[in-house]
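Hi Y.,

Following your request, here is the sequence exactly as I used it, all 110 residues.
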Amino acid sequence: MARDTRRAPQCADAFFWTTLAPKGVVLGNVKKRSSVRVTNAYRVSYPGYSEILTGRAQDEAIRGNDAVQNPTPTVLEFLRRKLGLPSSQIVLFGSWETFNSSASTSRGRL
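Below is the corresponding structure, written out as tokens. Let me know if you'd prefer a different format.
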């Protein structure tokens, strides 16, 4: 029986595809011309996530996966400030402890 790979995302994570995706933007599908490419020199996780969250590479400050504090305000901090939200209203979901450093310019801000 052939598997319908077009339905696989809906089956794998129904909440993401039925609740979150319709209200936002999902990037990263080359076939749909929505690929995402990083420009940082290191091509490892933290510099890439930092680039996504801040909109630019920060090769001078983030050189690998060490959990150094992100020196540049992120889109999450911008939204919190712009919308006047308490920190409990802005959340970054992730399973990697280094996200604590990448999400904001100081711990506990989000």
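Residues 41-110 form one domain.

Thanks again,
Q.
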